[in-house]
Amino acid sequence: MRINSKLKAITAAAAIAFSSQAQAELNVFACEPEYASLTKELAPDADIYTATTAMQDPHQVQARPSLIAKMRQADLVVCAGADLEVGWLPMLLMKASNAKVRSTEQGLFYAAEHTMTLDQLDEVDRSMGDVHALGNPHMHFDPYRMVDVANALTAKLAQVDADNAAKYQAALADFKTRWKQAIPKWEAKAEPLKGKKLIAYHTNFRYLFNWLGIDQVADLEPKPGLAPTSSHLASLLKRAEQGDIMAVVIASYQSDRGAKWLGERAKLKVERLPMSIGGNEQSKDLFSLYDSVISQLLEVK
Amino acid sequence: MSLTTRVSLVALSCAFATAAQANTGTLSNPNISAVLDGYYQTGERPMAERTEGFGLGETELAISANIDDSFYGKVTAILESHDGETEINLEEAFIQTLALPGGLSVRGGRFLSDIGYLNNQHKHTDSFTDRPVVYRSFLGNHYFDDGIRLNYVAPTDLYWTMGVEAFAGDKMRAADEHGERDFKTVGVYTAYTKFGGDIGQESSWQLGLSYLRNENGVSYLEEHEEHEEHAAEEHGHDDHGHSHSAAYTGKNMFVADFTFKWAPDGNYKYQNLTLSGEYFRVTDIFAEGMHEEHEEEHEHEEHEEEHHEHEVDFDAYNTGWYLSGVYKFSPSWSAGVRYGQVDLHEAHEDHLDKLKLKETEVMVAYHPSHFSVIRLQYTKQDGVNHFGIEDDNIFTLQYNMTLGAHGAHQF
Fold it and tell me: Ranges of Basic and acidic residues compositional bias (chain B) (predicted)?
């Protein structure tokens, strides 16, 4: 009976929480901060919840209760896709029992389905490490691909919230204007980086380097998803002795242990780049994230 | 029986082969996975599935996918090898609705009950080689059964879910050595609720309360002298007892559980800590023999008298709990401790014997990747001899690896 009265109290609390929720225009659940930021550009009035931070490895997120609760209330779920969230997102979708976001026909959006990913594999074998047949999912550092994603996301916003379709179209036009003005500036600024060689922890910045013409000659990880080993680091040291490496780059959520070890011995600078918005103080939206990453790379050049 | 077993094995392997060739396109395409588990152990833990020496744990084959826009389906087959015999067991074969409105979902078929914390988790995700002794005593390691579930998730920022289940409950039946009991065909009903949330960026928690009503769970005391034998056979350690049946049953089971997880910056890649605990209380475990039971309701006084005469405390209840802490201190290494105990009653002619079993466990695990673990576990067990404990110190060296699609794990 005590349980019963507790339940009543909680029901009342839930009812209050529910009524306050009902006022929000559109509830968006973004898997990563970059997609929260893109959604913010396209739907400035939406109530956007970001499931992970730039300090968290999006491969390894817990399908924790708070995320289920947020997904339960979502009208739209925006994620990178390409299996980046395969370890937790399916569990959230299952547990949240939210029919509105149950599939990509409804309010579920995978960015990777709307642009060409790099490094797609015909055959995937676990001996290759934690690789994805669907290609590299960290597309958000390619400004052209982000235009593809923005176009598709706007269509999805218009689908789930048809009443405001015109508003989303207008926001997209505005975003694309600013974005397309920024791209040549970034490219001009990054010109000195072209042809430079780097060692990075993982293929997080694959699209950035591909765009700017930077060559990632080696990974700190012996295989994708596996922590750096001493034997692998020793082989990287040998590689670094050729003297053509500009720096060792790690993402905001990655451990600097292996990078430091290599940096000290090979006399290379170790640079921690923000993986997403919030990965450093400067990165407050997609524009400042790009600014910050390019500036940091220019500093270590 | 063996024919159907063979047929289903073939069907399963066919499904496995064809689906594995298909190029998976999206996150929601069929997930096919196998779990391999093998071990060497220096002794035996009471009521546990692993035996002394070399052995295989549960070899699991699972296929899951969205069936269409409205249903999700999953099949999990478990291959177990005991005493040279290979058994195939269906642990899961269920469908779940995807399109019901209002946070509702229905699951039907065979599935893991959502009571407690560990029960709905697959054993290959456990941090220790065996389930805590309380699970082995009251739930037959873990409780899966044929039935139906209705679940509701509230649209609140504080995670709040609740559900009810009904099951056949065959494996939760009380012992019936003469086969004369008239068991109810729908034997088990459960109700559960869970709450959870985050504390800042780094910590998350979940609390659960569950109730299980077992219509067939009461053991009737009879004045047969065989009873003692039966108790030892059914409840004690038994080589033929690799069924998934609960060893100790009662009419009412109450469970409270908590889980707390922490990781620096909420980043689980390098370090994280998991603390969890559960408390079980099983009441109404014994009643007067079946024939007297009818009178009992009408003539309570008489029952009281008899009660005294038998010196049986019909208010006796069984309890069990555990606390565990696991710390992953690098991407490749984790260590954990767990303490668990059960306090049980067993009928012994005309009185009840008290039983107690305590387990203190320490484990270290090496994780070469996200998909493989090699674990060394030490268990110090302290129990009354009835459990057939021959060695108080047990070491287990175990591997547990998954191949195929990596399924998402629960909190």
Answer: 222-242
